[in-house]
Amino acid sequence: MTSFHDFGLAEPITRALAEEKYATPTPIQAQTIPVVLSRRDVIGIAQTGTGKTAAFAVPILHHLFTNRRRPERKTCRVLVLSPTRELSGQILDSFRTYGRHVGTRAALVIGGVSMGAQVRAVQNGVDVLVATPGRLLDLVTSNGLRLGEVEFFVLDEADRMLDMGFIHDIRKSSRSFLSNGKRCCFPQRCRAPSRRSRIRCCATRPRLP
């Protein structure tokens, strides 16, 4: 792939990419975007600064645009987990940048700030939810969020989340959609569940051996 137009992306997305001066896909984007567009699981390994966020955000936004529906109350269609508040904010900014002409609703759920405002942000449902694992579990256990409608599940910097001990929070939070036959893929050192999957997952490892 030598151009983002080669992927067959929706026009509002290619327009936003052109406005951001994106011309030629990076290797991780060229390999990942077609896989996610075909609705298959993917584990993407790339260093920071190689465009990995666009590699999963762009095809997910294409799906949201071509399969429009109103999210149910207290649900999200896309769930992205990352290990830190800073990275979560950057991911949300990327979704809003690439999806500025798509009209998706997005929210941020992170620790260290009032949970009340975050509960209100997801009350009417959102298309994209970016969260840290601990605060996500807080919302799920308090019935402020239901994850049964998740269509895309992304673990960004998955290895770092495992190193930080978030595996138990991730498993508890994702139980509602794993039980529906959906699966989350982890890096190789973590065994993935064997259930058949309808969930798209991108796990990135910024520190290559």
How does this model look, in words?
The chain is of the alpha/beta class. It has one domain: P-loop containing nucleotide triphosphate hydrolases (Rossmann fold, 3-Layer(aba) Sandwich). 40% of the residues lie in helices and 10% in strands. It contains 8 helices and 4 strands; from the N terminus they run H-H-H-E-H-E-H-E-H-E-H-H. The chain has helices spanning 11-19, 27-37, 52-66, 85-98, 115-122, 133-141, 158-163, 167-178; strands at residues 76-81, 106-109, 126-131, 152-155. Strands 2-3-1-4 form a 4-stranded parallel β-sheet, sandwiched between helices. Helix 3 (52-66) crosses helix 4 and helix 6 crosses helix 8 (167-178). Mean pLDDT is 83; it is low at 180-209.
Question: What's a concise summary of this model?
Answer:
The protein is of the alpha/beta class and 209 residues long. 40% of the residues lie in helices and 10% in strands.
Low-confidence stretches: 180-209
What is the name of the CATH superfamily?
P-loop containing nucleotide triphosphate hydrolases
Shape: globular
Portion of residues in helices?
Answer: 40-55%
Please give the number of β-strands: 4
Instruction: Give me the CATH fold name.
Output: Rossmann fold
Write the layout of secondary structure elements.
Elements: H1 11-19, H2 27-37, H3 52-66, E1 76-81, H4 85-98, E2 106-109, H5 115-122, E3 126-131, H6 133-141, E4 152-155, H7 158-163, H8 167-178
Parallel strand pairs: 1-3, 1-4, 2-3
Helix pairs in contact: 2-3, 3-4, 6-8
